[in-house]
């Protein structure tokens, strides 16, 4: 691996935000292709972070710190990606459902997906079904992710899927759900396309649905 890209990889895993920014800038100034910096440095590092999380070597705080460092690097790299015409894997609309103000899990999933090369449209928290529908119509994503941390707000996932059906867009987007009270059987019950127990698995699920 090219030394500066190897350094970016290490910086992301350590969660060294300023190191990531500095080395991405250095790689850009050295004329390295933006795609190479993205794939070899940022995406590869987040993939390693996900693997370490699944092995139990990393926990949520380490994932968050690494994801924030990756985002800082992405901020430096984005103008070059645009300039060199590098397209995101695909687009994901994500949000926490109506009535629910929790966002740590949703934010981590969004950052991990961004770290895997997806373009993220984050609707925030307390998102009504109509807003999810409007975002699908506006952004034409391949995936829609919903999060809920309360058993009382989980029902709004079902309502949102029904709203997508009524709006005639359900077959245009794959729906993935997650959050503490959510289960695989609930996902099947409400007609979602997939369920992920954590941010790392959400990335694996998103990739598998994207190619399905």
In short:
With about 210 residues, the chain is α/β, with parallel strands linked by helices. It has nine helices and five strands.
Q: Helices and strands in order, then pairings?
A:
Blueprint: H1 3-14, H2 17-29, H3 34-54, H4 60-83, E1 91-96, H5 104-115, E2 119-122, H6 129-139, E3 143-147, H7 151-166, E4 174-178, H8 184-190, E5 194-195, H9 199-211
Parallel strand pairs: 1-2, 1-3, 3-4, 4-5
Helix pairs in contact: 1-2, 1-3, 1-4, 2-4, 3-4, 4-5, 5-9, 6-7
Name the features:
212 residues; Methyltransferase, Methionine Synthase (B12-binding Domains), Chain A, domain 1; Rossmann fold; five-stranded parallel beta sheet; 9 helices; 61% helix; 10% strand
CATH class of the largest domain: Alpha Beta
Mean pLDDT: 95
User: Which structural class fits the helix and strand makeup?
Assistant: alpha/beta
Percent range for β-strand residues: 5-15%
Q: Please mark out the parts with pLDDT under 50 across 5 or more consecutive residues, or reply none.
A: none
What do these coordinates show?
With 212 residues, the protein is of the alpha/beta class. It has 2 domains: 3-83, Orthogonal Bundle (Methyltransferase, Methionine Synthase (B12-binding Domains), Chain A, domain 1), CATH 1.10.1240.10; 91-211, Rossmann fold (3-Layer(aba) Sandwich). Helix content is 61%, strand content 10%. The chain has 9 helices and 5 strands. The protein has helices spanning 3-14, 17-29, 34-54, 60-83, 104-115, 129-139, 151-166, 184-190, 199-211, and strands spanning 91-96, 119-122, 143-147, 174-178, 194-195. The protein has a 5-stranded parallel β-sheet, sandwiched between helices. It is globular and about 50 Å long. The protein starts with a helix and ends with a helix. The model has no long low-confidence stretch (mean pLDDT 95).
């Amino acid at each position: 691996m090219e030394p500066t890209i190897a350094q970016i990889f290490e910086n992301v895993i350590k969660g060294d935000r300023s190191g990531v920014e500095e080395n991405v800038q250095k790689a850009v100034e050295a004329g390295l292709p933006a795609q190479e910096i993205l794939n070899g440095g940022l995406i590869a590092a987040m993939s390693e972070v996900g693997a370490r999380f699944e092995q139990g070597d990393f926990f949520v705080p380490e994932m968050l710190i690494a994801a924030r460092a990756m985002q800082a690097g992405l901020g430096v790299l984005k103008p070059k990606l645009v300039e060199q015409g590098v397209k995101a894997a695909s687009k994901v609309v994500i949000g926490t459902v109506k009535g629910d103000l929790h966002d740590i899990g949703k934010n981590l999933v969004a950052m991990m997906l961004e770290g895997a090369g997806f373009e993220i449209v984050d609707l925030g928290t307390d998102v009504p079904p109509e807003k999810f529908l409007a975002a699908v119509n506006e952004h034409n994503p391949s995936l829609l992710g919903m999060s809920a941390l309360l058993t009382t707000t989980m029902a709004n996932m079902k309502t949102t899927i029904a709203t997508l059906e009524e709006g005639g867009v359900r077959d245009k987007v794959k729906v993935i759900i997650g959050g503490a009270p959510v289960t695989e059987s609930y996902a099947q019950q409400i007609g979602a396309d997939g369920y992920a127990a954590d941010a790392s698995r959400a990335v694996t699920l998103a990739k598998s649905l994207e190619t399905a």
